[in-house]
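Q: Got a minute? One more chain.
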Amino acid sequence: MASAVEELQKDLEEVKVLLEKTTRKRVRDALTSEKSKIETEIKNKMQQKSQKAELDNEKPAAVVAPITTGYTVKISNYGWDQSDKFVKIYITLTGVHQVPTENVQVHFTERSFDLLVKNLNGKSYSMIVNNLLKPISVEGSSKKVKTDSVIILCRKKVENTRWDYLTQVEKECREKEKPSYDTETDPSEGLMNVLKKIYEDGDDDMKRTINKAWVESREKQAKGDTEF
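A: Always. Here it is, folded:
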């Protein structure tokens, strides 16, 4: 059985064929819009697949520090999970357990935290996370330094609530990327519904254009299948 991504890629190829054949502006605009939607959905599916592979690995993401001579390195790689009471952020820093305790500093506010690790292997490391998805308890939040890692413990202000994202910005970005049609249905239905609506609302010339483009795309597809 073909995967959802493979089905979407087939839909995308068919839309491209139709776009090559279509001359009516209204039809081209609708097909161009559908092409953009399918491309976005393919991108989302690939990202979900990549994220699932990352989540299957229980180890926190390792920090790959750039080669520098001092100064402050921004931490961008981390992992996180949650319990009923805490949101836990895992940062891997080789040798961090060997620096003095006062060199590892974390400052919390109700909707943010920032971590600063001073003088680790000749560099400082910084991580600032603003606009947390939900409020946290400043007094109840803390840090733990383990072998080669730092764990940030953000105490949920409202316990037993689930965080789907770490920050509000991440939530808004993900929601903007959501496809406009139902992903639970057959991936081909979005394209078919658009073409059906254009056909039903169109005049005779538009219907002839769609019919001609559809037949030619099918013939082209069939010819391609026979070549392999």
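A: The two ends are 19 Å apart (CA to CA).
Q: Perfect, thanks.
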